[in-house]
Amino acid sequence: MKHGKKYRAAAEKYDLTKKYSVDSACNMVKDMKVASFDETVEAHISLKLDKSASVRDTLVFPNQFRGEKKVLVFCHEDRVKEALDAGAAYAGSDEYIEKVKGGWLDFDVAVATPDMMKDVGRLGMVLGRKGLMPNPKTGTVTTDITNAINELKKGRTEYRADKGGVIHIAVGKSSMDAAKVAENVNVLLAEVAKKSPNGVTAGFIQSVSLSSTMGPGVWVDMKEGE
């Protein structure tokens, strides 16, 4: 892939064949910012996973960097007021199922009560493609609507490994203090390390790199965090 002058100039600032501590990597990514907009800092975590295994969970970063999420709650009429009072942008059943079927997706995350999943499951082709399908593993299929919304408002974020066993997730913004981005990265790595399907953490995280949206990637030395 051919990169522009700004990218090449940024990449020449450091030896990007080496690995660096999380703190150093975050400072480097911030320093190598290329675009004029506030770039997102992303972590790319390669895991040692069997083909049949998967990793999917949520966490709340200590330092938030995203705007407030619009939450849609699929629930029956008797729980609509509870959902709206808790901070949901939208709440209801059939009317929102029909809207989503028609392509409406003006929300960031969907929550559903268990008794709604039979109907919500029919939206798999729409919600699944966008990563918006409620799931018990991520706390978005629940009877405790209020707690689920509160957690999402705090910035609860889902992460998952793709088919290649790699987690791609935003961990901050280039405008943030590098130490705060580093704190987010360390919390993420600690959480992911606990998700080894066979319980063996040694070698589970094979490699970690950080980059801004448009900038070069920096390899993280996992031994620095031990």
Essential attributes:
226 residues, alpha/beta, Ribulose 1,5 Bisphosphate Carboxylase/Oxygenase, Rossmann fold, 2 domains, five-stranded mixed beta sheet, three-stranded parallel beta sheet, 30% helix
Task: Characterise this structure.
30% of the residues are buried. The chain has helices at 5-11, 22-31, 80-85, 94-101, 117-120, 124-130, 145-153, 178-193; strands at residues 19-20, 40-47, 56-60, 71-74, 90-92, 109-112, 156-160, 166-173, 205-212, 218-220. It has a 5-stranded mixed beta sheet with strand order 1-10-9-2-8, with helices on one face. It has a 3-stranded parallel beta sheet with strand order 5-4-6, with helices on both faces. Strand 4, helix 3 (80-85) and strand 5 (90-92) form a beta-alpha-beta unit. The chain has 226 residues and is of the alpha/beta class. Helix 2 packs across helix 8. The mean pLDDT is 91. It contains 8 helices and 10 strands. The protein folds into 2 domains: 5-65 and 157-225, Ribosomal protein L1/L10, rRNA-binding domain (Ribulose 1,5 Bisphosphate Carboxylase/Oxygenase, 2-Layer Sandwich); 71-154, 3-Layer(aba) Sandwich (Rossmann fold).
Uncertain segments:
none
Total tally of structural domains:
2
Question: Termini distance?
Answer: 34 Å
Overall morphology:
globular
Secondary-structure arrangement, i.e. CATH architecture of the largest domain? 2-Layer Sandwich
Number of helices: 8
| Main pleated-sheet profile | 5 strands, mixed
| Share of helical residues | 25-40%
CATH fold topology of the largest domain:
Ribulose 1,5 Bisphosphate Carboxylase/Oxygenase
Strand content: 15-25%
Major sheet: arrangement of strands: 1-10-9-2-8
* Class per helix and strand makeup: alpha/beta
Regarding quaternary structure, how should these chains be classified? single chain
CATH class category label of the largest domain: Alpha Beta
